[in-house]
Amino acid sequence: MKLKTLAKAMLIVSSLALVVGGITACTKNKSASSGSHKDIIIVDNGEDAPTLDPALAQDTQSSRVIYDLFEGLVSFDQKMQTIPGLAETWDISKDQLTYTFHLRPGIKFSDGTPITADDVVFSLQRLVDPKTGSPYNMLGSNIVNGQAIIDKKQPVNSLAVLALDKNTVEIKLVHPDASFLAICAMPNLGIISKANLNKYGNDWTQPGKMVNSGAYNLTERVIKGYILLSKNPYYYDAKDVSINQVKFMPIVDYSSSLNQYKSGNIDITYSLPIDQYKTIKRQMPLEEHTVTQEGLYYYDLNMTLPKFRDNPKLREALSIAVDRNALVKVVLGQDQIPSYSYVTETIEAGKFAGLNYDWANWSRDKQIAKAQQLFKEAGYGANNPLEISISYNTNDLHKKVALAVGSMWQEVFGEKSIQVTIANQEWKTFLKARNTANYDVARDGWIADYDSVDSYTNLYQCGNPQNNSKMCNKEYNNLLTQAQKTANPEERVDLIRKAIAIAMDEYAIIPLYQYTYFRMISPKVKGYDIKDNHLDHVQSKWYKF
């Protein structure tokens, strides 16, 4: 789709939003609290969960259910702070390389059998075992011998996770990691029963066979249908689990989800229809919740292409030319935050805030003048127009962003100086093209798994599979390696800040905004404090009626 009629296209998009908003405004608002279900909470999970095996989870839907079914050595509260889980306490050595976890006395799986240190060892060994095929095995790569096991260079039993006795586990790390406890709370490190998996093999995740360490058991599962969980009576904190059953619905259509919410058929939505967002927010302000999410939306510039790789002024010009304020306020309007850095200002309680580009605070006129100067110095203009194609996976929001960014480039540089096309692809095709650098400019985004700047800095490392721009700066990599090795937290922050500044000078990506997520929560649901949950990690044991 060429952008010669871009202004017209944007007008159509805006008009559609107004029409949809108008229709919604006429819809009678039936309170979700009028639903008839009792003692069961019904949650829209957005999609069907591909797996309920902790080691195999790599998506939001699977993780949401697994957080209810399995618990790790540590857990997290609603502000995403690490708290005791199956381990009641732990000790950390002075060199921060040895963690000793002490399990709660008398804890049991859902079948009444004891949870022991051997189950912990088995669960972590299984995560890094190549036979398991975990897409998140890198979470165990900093445990001594973890990476060698992943690379099939060491046997699984060489992993430095030891059962000192039936209630004590020792884990040795390769280098200090301030995020290690947060990693232990990830769904992939949920503790499973060694005896149960050995008994049922690949069928162990089926209802009636699965044994759980979390607050709930798996009761029923209908593929592409629903997942029903029931309270685990053997859970160590069962007395504080209020809701007896949780039903997850895989509603892909956000409008359908909203309608079911209004009818009282579900209590919590996964998201909201984009074009109805402002209307819903105005009409149902106490039930709609918008939360800043720990994640970045950005564009990759393909650094394997000579026109980007060999022309830093062009990369800088394209970044400065995008009006982030207009993008989030006019085009999107869902309280997203304009982004001018390669990491968010909120990660690790703001330790990496203030790294924004200097031009972020310039007037728009000054930004445009600088972008035009760089574009001209890069060798482009009416006599040598730049041709750019923006790729994105099929989605209305991504299309709106691509139309807006292309329009801004044409407005700043002139339609005769830059020719922009946009092209959508289905998700799998798009992922393959982006991963193999078969694109020009690509839509990208990243949601942090845990509260660590590593979630972002990994994206720009040489050779990292998630580094879709394919930038590579060895000085950046070296600084991150130094930061990993130091046990001094202040030195770590200083080294990483320097590394981020170096990566940003590459202008290999164009940061656009920090995500928000939004959902409806029925007034009858208590105990769910969503406002500080920037990672959107949720456990049903928090809910009450």
Please describe the structure with a list of short key phrases separated by commas or semicolons.
single chain; peptide transmembrane transporter activity; transport; SBP_5_dom; Dipeptide-binding Protein, domain 3; Solute-binding protein family 5 domain-containing protein; D-Maltodextrin-Binding Protein, domain 2; 6-stranded mixed sheet; 545 residues; 4-stranded mixed sheet; alpha+beta; globular; SBP_5
Helix content: 25-40%
| Number of discrete helical segments | 17
CATH topology name of the largest domain, in short, is D-Maltodextrin-Binding Protein, domain 2
pLDDT averaged residue by residue:
91
Head-to-tail CA distance between termini: 50 Å
Family: Belongs to the bacterial solute-binding protein 5 family.
GO molecular function: peptide transmembrane transporter activity
Organism: Aquella oligotrophica
Subcellular location: Cell envelope
How would you describe this protein?
One of its GO terms (cellular component) is ATP-binding cassette (ABC) transporter complex. InterPro entries: Peptide/Ni-bd, SBP_5, SBP_5_dom. Keywords: Signal, Transport. Pfam families: SBP_bac_5. It is found in: Cell envelope. By secondary structure, the protein is an alpha+beta fold. It has 2 domains: 40-248 and 521-542, Periplasmic binding protein-like II (D-Maltodextrin-Binding Protein, domain 2, 3-Layer(aba) Sandwich); 293-516, Roll (Dipeptide-binding Protein, domain 3). Helices cover 32% and strands 18% of the residues. It is built from 17 helices and 16 strands. It has helices at residues 6-25, 60-69, 117-128, 146-150, 180-184, 194-200, 254-262, 277-283, 306-309, 312-320, 324-332, 364-377, 396-413, 427-435, 454-457, 474-485, 489-506; strands at residues 40-44, 74-76, 82-84, 87-92, 98-103, 161-165, 168-172, 216-221, 227-231, 245-249, 288-301, 337-338, 386-393, 418-425, 441-447, 509-520. Strand 2 and strand 3 form a beta hairpin. Helix 1 (6-25) packs parallel to helix 8 (277-283), helix 10 (312-320) runs antiparallel to helix 12 and helix 16 (474-485) packs antiparallel against helix 17. The longest helix has 20 residues, at 6-25. It is globular.
